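hey so u asked for the seq, here:
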Amino acid sequence: MTMARRVDELRLAMMMLTRLPMGQLRDPVPTLAEARWGFPLVGLPMGLAAWAGFAGAQAVGLPPLAAALTALALLAVLTGGLHHDGFADFADGAGGRDRAHRLEIMRDSRVGSYGVIALIFAVGLAASALGALPALPLAGFVLVSVVSRLAMLVLLDLLPPARADGMGQMAATTDTALPWRVWLPSLIVTAVAALSLGGAALVVLPVMALAAAIVAQRARQRLGGQTGDVLGAAQLGSETAGWLALAAAL
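ran it, structure tokens below
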């Protein structure tokens, strides 16, 4: 595969997970399964944007909590609220009678009480944690943003699709011939960010992994696999856990 093809795959990942303009892809357009390796790398510009939003808000005199909410609002705008929507739908699905009913609830575009409550707590906890940071570590913002999207890739490769359609099905693959191409770029970026952050990474990484594992366990048990909403829940859930761990470790 050529470098141009890799770039197109990364652009497709950016198109799927953000609202950043990426232009028009050339034919043949990559599949979402081919582009899934780029999901964690989307965390690079997102982490930089969150850090810049936080730093800029503080520079103009906003208090820490307001600066934290500014950074989180910027992330929501740049992603189109994609992960928030998945997180809320996943929470709503917890109230279903059985697997089919849970999947039906999650597909409904309306947000129920479970979803609203889950989002309130997720945003509130993240804002409180960011507002309490004693420093403004760029490496920490990048690490949390990248690893929370790495969680999506892990769930895609470990859990079968719970539906025969949707993002979770399109991004999944049974191709095991390209493991290094899938994992290596994300692992390199994660390692660089973790080393730059220092000892705090030893707290942040396992806490984020635990949050993603809880989502994965619930998805397997309640849905039989992953969906796009499950991936969104894993991203936002592990990201929120990452902010909390970062605040505790610094």
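DSSP finds twelve helices and no strands in the chain. The chain has a mean pLDDT of 91.
lmk if thats what u needed
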